[in-house]
Write a structure and sequence with these properties.
Layout lengths: L7 H17 L2 H8 L1 H13 L11 H31 L2 H5 L6 H30 L8 H24 L7 H4 L1 H10 L11 H7 L5 H12 L4 H25 L7
Helix pairs in contact: 1-6, 2-4, 3-4, 4-6, 4-7, 4-9, 4-11, 6-7, 7-11, 7-12, 11-12
Length: 258
Amino acid sequence: MSTAMTTPVGRMTALARAEVTLLGRSRGTLFAALFVPLLLPFSVREAAKGMDLAEAGLSLGTVVLPASIGFSLLYAVYATLVSVYTARREELVLKRLRTGELKDTEILAGAALPAVVTGVAQSLVLAVGCAVLLDVGAPSAPHLAVLGLLLGVVLCASLGAVTASFTRSVESAQVTTLPVVFLSMIFSGMFVPLEVLPDRVASVCEFLPLTPVITLLRGGWTGDLSVYEAIGPVVTGLAWTVLGVLAVRRWFRWEPRH
């Protein structure tokens, strides 16, 4: 075996290549990851037309663009990884991998790499497309946009592993992912920006897992989020990420559920 293959990066890369092949055989998962995030922004666009965005200091573009990236994170990363981890566990792939050189973190990271790359690439394509078609332009605070995207990727990956821990089969993954997907789509500022919600409702929604991500992404493009105002979303997002990682270490299943 070559030296490159015995390094953590080499082992994870090899695992990621194998995962790409396996993922390509799952047409349902592949369709949801590649095409659903491209279709949902049209629904947000139509819904946003009926909102009083100007009063909230928003535009059609600053609503649709962050939502588009959020959809990519939810479907290309989160939902895909729930199916991937569940399928590999039930196929005994994870169990076999643990008997080799790979460490647990390398197995999880390597298996997640194709979904993460897909989600990031898709997010960038959607961001450019929305910026051009909806006349949003470049982000006014790019550091917030980058931070929001990175935070979203790590958070969705950890949530995917946690959800897979309680998912019995690939088929049931369509059900177990619904709470996170629908709560995020409706109450995290994707379909309905927090700025147009009643204050009490918005203050509760701020603590949902993906709300900090959407807030940072939107603030990155509008430039209206000050350093002080960004602290809250960053802390909330990091807290959810830490909780997700701890939950994975505590509950992630490496062998089939019985």
